[in-house]
Amino acid sequence: MNSIKLQLFKQDESFNTLLESRGFKQIFRIENPLELGNVLSFTDSIKEPNVLFLFDTVSCDISIFTINLEILDEILDGIDFSIGFLTPYKDQIDYQNIKYRTPSFDTYFKHSETLTFKAVPLNIEEIILKHLKKYYTTLRNNFGIFDSFYLPIDNKEEIIKKLNENIDENVKSLTVEDSEYVNNNWPYRSDESIHFIKWACSQEVSASYRIKNEETGENELVSWILMYPDASIGSLFSDTKYRGKGFARKVSSLIILKKLQSQPNQLPYLFIKTDNVPSQSLMRSLGFKTDTQVKWIVCSNK
C-alpha cells in the first residue's frame, strides 16, 4: 500500500466552505476550535480534502473527519506513532502563533505514552484501532457511546431571551482558583488533567453556581459546566446534595448564552453518554438536537 502523507496547513473560512462542499458532515465541529487559537490542522489535500485531522494543543487529543474510509486507512498506515504524531511537522509548526499549549504538548514529538482520539464516529473506530495496536499495548474504547448534540440557531434573539430567564445573580464564571476542586471532581482526571482544567477555568466561557453555606458563611461551589479546548461544552456537574434543584439548568443556560455571544458564528455543541438520561433531557429541553454517535479511544503503553 502506498501511504498518503498528511499536510499541515492553516485552516480558514474558505477551507471550511470547501469542506462543506466536499460533503464533510459536522462542519460545526470543525469550525468551532479555530477562534480559540489552539488547533493544528492536517489534511491529505488542501484542494480536494478527503481526510482532516485536528490536533488540540491544550488537551493534545486528535479529532478525525473523513469522507473516504479507504484514504483514511492509507493515511493511518503512513503515520509512525513511535516517533510522535507531531515529529514530521516539527519544522513547519508556527509555535509563536499557538495561543495555548499545555506541558504535555512536547511529548508528541516522541512516542507518547498516552494518545487520545476524541469523538470518533462509530464507522471509523475499527480502522483506527487496527493501526494503533501496532504501537500501543493497551487500547481503551469502553468509555461508552456518546450522542453528539448541537443547538440550531433559528431565532437567536428568542433563544437568548429564554436562556436569560433561567439565570439569576448566583450564576458566575469559574475562576482559576476553582480548578483544583473542579479537577478533583472530574471523572476523567489524570496526572496531567489539571493543566486542561486550569485552562478551562480561565476561559470566558464557563459557568458555576454558588450558594451560601449556612455553617461557614462562605459561598459554596455546587454546580458548574465549562468549555473544552475544541469549543464543545461539557463536564456538567452538580454536587449530589444539591441535585434536582435546577442548578444544572442555570449554569447550562449561562454557558450557552456566553458561547453565543463570544463565538456568534459557531453553533454550541456537546457530547452526552447515551445512557445519561438526565443530561440528555436537560439539553433537549434547552433546544439541542442530536447529530451522530461517537466514542473515545485512549491508547497507552503504561
Describe the structure.
The chain is an alpha+beta fold and 302 residues long. The protein has two domains: 7-145 and 296-300, Aminopeptidase; 153-266, Aminopeptidase (3-Layer(aba) Sandwich), CATH 3.40.630. The protein has helices at residues 13-22, 27-31, 69-77, 125-132, 156-165, 179-184, 193-202, 247-262, 277-285; strands spanning 7-9, 39-43, 51-56, 61-66, 114-121, 138-140, 146-150, 171-172, 206-212, 219-227, 233-238, 269-273, 289-300. The longest helix is centred in the last third of the chain and has 16 residues, at 247-262.
What features would you highlight for this structure?
single chain; 302 residues; alpha+beta; Aminopeptidase; four-stranded antiparallel sheet
Whole-number mean pLDDT = 91
Low-confidence stretches: none
CATH class of the largest domain: Alpha Beta
* Alpha carbon gap, first and last residue: 31 Å
SSE pattern, N- to C-terminal: EHHEEEHEHEEHEHHEEEHEHE
Largest sheet: 9 strands, mixed
Radius of gyration: 20 Å
How much β-strand is present in the residues? 25-35%
- What structural class results from the helix and strand content? alpha+beta
> Which term fits the overall shape?
globular
CATH architecture of the largest domain: 3-Layer(aba) Sandwich
Strand segment count:
13
Give the CATH topology of the largest domain: Aminopeptidase
Residues in helices, as a percent range: 25-40%
Total domains, how many?
Answer: 2
Number of helices: 9
